[in-house]
Amino acid sequence: MQTLRTLEALEREGLLTPDPRLATAAQSMAIAITPEMLALIDRSDPAHDPIGRQFVPSAAETEVSPDELLDPIGDEARSPVKGIVHRYPDRVLLKPLHVCPVYCRFCFRREKVGPGGEALSATELSAALAYIREHPEIWEVILTGGDPLMLAPRRLAELTAAIDAIGHVGVIRIHSRVPIVDPERVSGELVAALRPRRATLWFGVHCNHARELAAATRAALARLADAGIPLIGQTVLLAGVNDDVETLDQLMRGLVMARVKPYYLHHPDLVRGTGHFRVSVERGQALMKALRGRLSGLAQPTYVLDVPGGHGKVPIGPGYLGDDPDALWVEDAFGERHRYPR
Ligand code: SF4
Question: Are 14 and 43 in contact (CB under 8 A)?
C-alpha cells in the first residue's frame, strides 16, 4: 500500500463525502496519507474520526476568515537568510526542506509545505550554516520544515555533523512526525544519523491523539530512546481531534509511557481555512486545568500561543494565583482556593 495523494485515491478508499468544494481544498494544500495513518482511520465516519479529520481534506478549508493569515507565526518577518528563522537570540529554526510524509490539514506552514515545497539548494544551505557560524549567541538549532526526517539518512548525518562542527551550538533539536506516520523510516541508519559527536540532540515528536501511538510507532520511539536521544512531545489542540479531557489524558499518558515528555500543547494558529479546527483559549485553559487535577507533572505540557507576527510563543495559562491587597490566593489542582502570605 502506498501513500494516498489524490482526491480520487481518497474516494476509492471511502474517505470522502462528495462536495464540489473539495477540489479547491485539495488545491490549497497537498494531500498525503500514509498506510499507517490510513489503517487508523474509522472508515464509517472519516470526517469525524480524530485521525481522518487531521489528513482528509474538508470543504470547510475553503472558508477563510479575515483574521486568518498566510504566515500565521511570522516566519518571514524573522528570516535573515533563506531557511533560517531567528526569533530568539539564542536559537534558530533551520528549515532544509518543506516536504512531509503526511500533510496535516491544520498545518501552520500549509502555504509552504508540499511535494514541490521549496528545499534549500547546496548554496543556500551553506549560507544558512554560515549565518549560524557567524552568530556565536546561537546555542540551539531546531531542524524543522517540512519534516527533516524526509532527508535521506546520509544527508541528515551530513547536516547534523555540519551543525555539530559549529562550536557554540550546544543543542540540535529535530521536530518530526515521521515516528508517528511512517515509523519504519526510523531505521538503524537513520538513528545513527541523529548522533552528533559533541552537541546534544533532542527529538520533538508531533502527536495529537493516543491512537497515533500504535505498536510500530512505539517501537520507533523506543529505537530513538534506546539510542539515548531525549524525546519531547508536541501536540496541537484541535477541535474534533483532541479537545476533550479524556482524549488529552490518554495522549499525555501514552507519550510518557513511550518515554516522550509532553512539552507543548499548541493553541491552534490563525491558519487560513482552518477555522473548523479552532478552539477558544478559554476552552484550552479549562482543559489544562482539568489535566492538572488528573496527571502528574511529568505528563503536563505547557499550553502555548504563538503570537502572530513572529513574536514567539507565550504560555497562556490557566493562572492559579488570585490577588488581594495583602495576600495571594492560590487555586489548587482541584479548584479549591488557599491564602498564601505575600
Ligand atoms: S508534518 Fe508538520 S510541517 Fe508537515 S504538514 Fe504536518 S504539521 Fe505541517
Answer: yes
C-alpha to C-alpha distances, 61 to 1, 47, 281, 305, nearest whole angstrom: 27, 13, 21, 22
Report how far ligand 1's centroid is from the alpha carbon of 332 (Å).
36
Q: Please tell me the pTM assigned to this model.
A: 0.95
Protein residue with least CA distance to atom 3, ligand 1: 146
Catalytic-labelled residue, pool 71, 75, 182, 306: 306
Identify whether the C-beta of residue 112 lies closer than 8 Å to the C-beta of residue 144: no
Q: How far is the CA of 287 from the centre of ligand 1 (A)?
A: 24
How much is the pLDDT for 193?
Answer: 95
What integer pLDDT is reported at residue 262 of this predicted model?
98
Measured from the CB, is residue 31 less than 6 Å from ligand 1? Answer: no
Name which of 92, 83, 149, 84 is nearest 119 in CA terms.
83
Q: Which atom of ligand 1 is nearest to the CA of 146?
A: 3
Looking at residue 119, what is its pLDDT? 83
- Indicate if the alpha-carbon torsion angle 36, 40, 45, 47 is positive or negative: negative
The reply to whether 107 belongs to the active site is: yes
Q: Catalytic: which of 82, 91, 133, 294?
A: 91
Q: Whose CA is nearest to atom 6 of ligand 1?
A: 104
Instruction: Write down the pLDDT at residue 70.
Output: 84
**247 burial class (0-12, 13-18, 19+ CB within 10 angstroms)?**
middle
Distance of alpha carbon 322 from its chain centroid, rounded? 33
* 264 in catalytic set: no
pLDDT value of residue 342: 81
Cα–ligand 1 centroid distance for 151 (angstroms): 15
Tell me the mean pLDDT per 10 residues along the chain, length 342: 95 92 95 98 94 97 90 87 95 96 94 83 97 98 95 96 98 98 98 96 98 98 98 98 98 98 97 96 97 96 94 93 85 91 84
